[in-house]
Every structure is written in structure tokens, then in C-alpha cells.
């Protein structure tokens, strides 16, 4: 998969090819960014990965973006002044040219300013830089088609104006490709440094002894299930037989107190 993405990047940069190592770093960073980029956009002072951005890097980027914005404004004015309906061409070609002009205008007014703002907030963010490069690559192809039509069916002034715009976009695209190569080399050196630091830390840290896990697979003997005892309920005793009617209950005579044996005789 990484090889396929690397070949795709090489096809997208035919005029300004990147080195194999730089292309691989670009692919890795783009994959990591697509998988885990969910946090807030970092500030320009901290850079894309929380590291400070050099003054030279910010100055170079601001000059590049300023030139790109000026080219965008001029191109929009030149496209408005085109008179494609007066071209000596068939209707289908005119409609295609008008569609290309409309597509370029929408990109220059909506998509391009958004990408530029994102890159200004993260000057050394490689995915954002590559996103701007892809957008410029698409703009260059469509604008080149309109420029060829102006040269074949339009006026010389239109051809000259659009040719200058196309040349400006090409110069910005070349500068952007060089910046991508520089950033990718810096990221590659940073990854190598981090790997070396990791190996050093692993060598210094004491190795923990392996933990032993004892598994007791013997099954305990099963005890026979105790039979539940049946509860016995006592029956109430039968009522005592009542005496027949008319007969009273015989009372036991009370015992008389015993006579005193030693009674005093009368004198």
C-alpha cells in the first residue's frame, strides 16, 4: 500500500520529482494524519507537532502565500475579461471552456483561501502543504486548457494575460515542491533521531524478569448433591372425651392437715 501511494505522489509531481526517501516520509505523515488528526489546529508559534517554527521558514512561507494570493486575484480578473462566447469555435468547446472557467473561479474564491488559512496556522504541517500542492496542480491543468483555447480562438491580449498567470502558478508550485522536499527531509531526520533515542532508552532501562503464570487445570472432585429433608408436620392431638351430660366432675378431696402427735395433756 505504501508503495502504491509513493508511486501516486511521483505521478502527481512529474515536473518536480521528490527523492524516494522524501516521498516515503510524505506518505507516512499523510497516513498518520488521516488516522489520528482529530485535535485542534496548532498555533503557528508551536508548529504542526508542537515544536517552534524557525523565522526563516515562516518568512519563506509568507512570501510564497502572498505571491499565490496576488496571482489568484489577477487570474480572477483575467478570466472575467474573457469573451469566450466570441471565440470562433463550436458550441460544445465553448461550453467546456465556460465550465472550466467557472470551476477555476470557484476554486480561487473558496477552496484556495481555506487551504492557505490552514497552512498559515500550521506553517510546517506537511499534510497541509501537500494539500496546497495538489490544489495548485489541479488548477494548473485546468487553467492550461483555458489558456490553450485562448491562444487558438481568443485575442492575443487574453493569451498573454493567461500565460503570465499560468507561469506564476507554475513558479509557486515549484517553490512548494521544494518546500515539501525540505520538510520531508527534516521529518526523516527527526524520525531517525527518535529511533536512536528509543534504542538508547531501551538499553539503559533494566529488563524486567518475565512473569510466570501458573495455571491449575485439575478439576476439583464433585461432591454428591445432598438430598433435601422432608419436613414432617405434627398432627394436633385429639380432643379429650367430654363427660356425659348430668355428671359433674369428680373433685379430688383436699388432704387434711396431719394431727399434732405431741399434744400437751391437760393438767
Explain this structure.
The protein has 267 residues and is mainly alpha-helical. It has a domain of 143 residues: Up-down Bundle (Four Helix Bundle (Hemerythrin (Met), subunit A)). Helices cover 61% and strands 0% of the residues. Helix 2 crosses helix 6 and helix 3 packs antiparallel against helix 6. The longest helix has 49 residues.
Short characterization:
The protein is mainly alpha-helical and 267 residues long.
Within CATH, the superfamily of the domain at 55-197 carries the name Alpha-catenin/vinculin-like
Q: What's the tally of helices? A: 6
Our Rg estimate from Cα atoms comes to 50 Å
Low-confidence stretches: 1-5, 29-49, 260-267
Mean pLDDT: 76
Percent in strands: under 5%
Overall CATH architecture of the domain at 55-197: Up-down Bundle
Described by its quaternary structure, the protein is: single chain
Structural class: mainly alpha
Order of helices and strands: HHHHHH
Amino acid at each position: 500500500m505504501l508503495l502504491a501511494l509513493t508511486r501516486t505522489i511521483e505521478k502527481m509531481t512529474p515536473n518536480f520529482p521528490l527523492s524516494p526517501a522524501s516521498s516515503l516520509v510524505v506518505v507516512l505523515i499523510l497516513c498518520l494524519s488521516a488516522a489520528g488528526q482529530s485535535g485542534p489546529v496548532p498555533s503557528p508559534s508551536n508548529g504542526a507537532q508542537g515544536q517552534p517554527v524557525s523565522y526563516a521558514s515562516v518568512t519563506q512561507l509568507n512570501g510564497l502565500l502572498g505571491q499565490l494570493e496576488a496571482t489568484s486575484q489577477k487570474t480572477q480578473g483575467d478570466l472575467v475579461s474573457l469573451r469566450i462566447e466570441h471565440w470562433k469555435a463550436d458550441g460544445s468547446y465553448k461550453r467546456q471552456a465556460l465550465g472550466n472557467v467557472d470551476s477555476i473561479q470557484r476554486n480561487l474564491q473558496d477552496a484556495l483561501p481555506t487551504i492557505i488559512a490552514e497552512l498559515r496556522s500550521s506553517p510546517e504541517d506537511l499534510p497541509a502543504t501537500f494539500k496546497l500542492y495538489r490544489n495548485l496542480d489541479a488548477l494548473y491543468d485546468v487553467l492550461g486548457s483555458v489558456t490553450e483555447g485562448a491562444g487558438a480562438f481568443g485575442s492575443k491580449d487574453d493569451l498573454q494575460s493567461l500565460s503570465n498567470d499560468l507561469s506564476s502558478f507554475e513558479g509557486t508550485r515549484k517553490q512548494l515542491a521544494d518546500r515539501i522536499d525540505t520538510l520531508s527531509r527534516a521529518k526523516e531526520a527527526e524520525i531517525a533521531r527518535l529511533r536512536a533515542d528509543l534504542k538508547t532508552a531501551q538499553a539503559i532501562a533494566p529488563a524486567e524478569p518475565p512473569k510466570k503464570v501458573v495455571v491449575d487445570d485439575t478439576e476439583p472432585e464433585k461432591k454428591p448433591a445432598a438430598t433435601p429433608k422432608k419436613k414432617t408436620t405434627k398432627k394436633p392431638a385429639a380432643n379429650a372425651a367430654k363427660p356425659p351430660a348430668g355428671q359433674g366432675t369428680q373433685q379430688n378431696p383436699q388432704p387434711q392437715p396431719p394431727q399434732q402427735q405431741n399434744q400437751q395433756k391437760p393438767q
